[in-house]
């Protein structure tokens, strides 16, 4: 993850719990499962800090709503695909300089709490 430079802000969305169709086994295809999503987003926040104005900030609520609609409204065979599609949604916002998306699939393995995939993008 890039170092946080002066004037940049780091937004973290932690443990966004959604339900979606994820997996390749029959029971996964037929039944929604929980996924946990964690986002880290870096963007220049000088104007937002100076003006105290939402129009100059990156609106994490807008980004989160888009992620919720996309994840809950689609089906995914692989965690890699789901993670990439979420990253693509985040990166559509021009202000985003760096984003990291981690998606956990709880209880994907018998003796593990979860399995996760992390992908990152930058401009």
From TrEMBL:
It comes from the Bacteria. CDD domains: DHNA_DHNTPE. The keyword S-adenosyl-L-methionine does not apply. One of its GO terms (biological process) is pteridine-containing compound biosynthetic process. Its EC number is 5.1.99.7. One of its GO terms (cellular component) is cytosol. Coiled coil: none annotated. Residues 11-121 form the Dihydroneopterin aldolase/epimerase domain. Keywords: Isomerase. The keyword Plastid does not apply. It is an enzyme of class 5 (isomerase). It holds the Pfam family FolB. One of its GO terms (molecular function) is dihydroneopterin aldolase activity. SMART domains: FolB (SM00905). It catalyses: 7,8-dihydroneopterin 3'-triphosphate = 7,8-dihydromonapterin 3'-triphosphate. Belongs to the DHNA family. This is Dihydroneopterin triphosphate 2'-epimerase.
């Amino acid at each position: 993850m890039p170092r946080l430079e002066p004037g940049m802000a780091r937004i973290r969305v932690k443990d966004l719990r959604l339900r979606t169709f994820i997996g390749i086994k029959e029971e996964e295809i037929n039944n929604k499962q929980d996924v946990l999503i964690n986002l880290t987003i870096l963007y220049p926040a000088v104007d937002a800090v100076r003006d105290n104005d939402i129009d100059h900030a990156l609106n994490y609520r807008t980004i989160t709503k888009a992620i919720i609609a996309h994840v809950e409204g689609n089906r995914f065979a692989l965690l890699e695909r789901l993670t990439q599609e979420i990253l693509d949604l985040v990166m559509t916002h021009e202000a985003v300089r760096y984003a990291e998306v981690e998606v956990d699939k709880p209880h994907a393995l018998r003796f593990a709490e979860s399995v996760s995939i992390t992908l990152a993008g930058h401009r």
